[in-house]
Amino acid sequence: EDFKQNKTALNVLFYTEKTMVAFSTLAEYGGARGPFDGDTTLVYNTLIANVGDAYSASTGVFTAPVAGVYCFILSYHAGGDHNAKLMLIKNSELIVATSDHKSNEPSDNGGNAAVLELKKGDQVYVRMAAGTRVWADGGYHTTFSGFLVSQMRELTPEK
Length: 159
What we know:
Blueprint: H1 2-16, E1 22-26, E2 31-33, E3 40-41, E4 46-51, E5 62-63, E6 68-79, E7 84-90, E8 93-100, E9 107-118, E10 123-128, E11 134-136, E12 143-151
Antiparallel strand pairs: 1-4, 1-12, 2-11, 3-10, 5-10, 6-9, 6-12, 7-8, 7-10
Subcellular location: Secreted
Main location: secreted
Organism: Lates calcarifer (Barramundi)
């Protein structure tokens, strides 16, 4: 009988401790974004999903609600007549970038991804480099997405 109660308690704890976090955003309309004089955080104008409400549609910033391993993906579409460069930033630190130089091509596409270990409250966002441009159009190419792969327990320092 004790075994059954302990097993039930463990099952309840296991299944209720799982936190779901996933978001996907799209720069769907508005035409050219940039070029700007300084690096600029991209705020995407269409929210596809925001499970866990960790992505702020008003600031473009994802804030980790729990410690864990997360995956982030970014992509862009840009006209070939301008440079394009997007950077994935974690707490003001450059993690990965994707870029393309001005060309004679009518359009260019790029992307990148990263798996990050985050603490609760860490922030991740996409910055567009100064003097570059991406497109927000009906082509559904300029996106930013992320999801929690595995939740981790944060250790608190002993006093």
